[in-house]
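Appendix C: a fully annotated inverse folding record. The material below is reproduced so that readers can follow the format used throughout the book. The structure is listed first as tokens, followed by the designed sequence.
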């Protein structure tokens, strides 16, 4: 991806972030978590570990 396109895409995502709908306490500055939030983090950690393991070179 070209740097200009990449910067434009990042700016679009950052501009859309405040539009995310959630109840009070959630969002980028959230104050509490739910079990599904922790499960999502565990899934991301697992997928990242698998990606790193599969991408290592012998």
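Designed amino acids, in order:
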């Amino acid at each position: 991806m070209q740097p200009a396109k990449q910067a434009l895409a990042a700016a679009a995502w950052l501009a859309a972030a405040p539009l995310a709908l959630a109840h009070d306490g959630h969002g980028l500055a959230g104050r509490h978590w739910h079990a599904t939030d922790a499960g999502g983090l565990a899934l991301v950690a697992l997928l990242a570990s698998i990606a790193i393991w599969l991408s290592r070179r012998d």
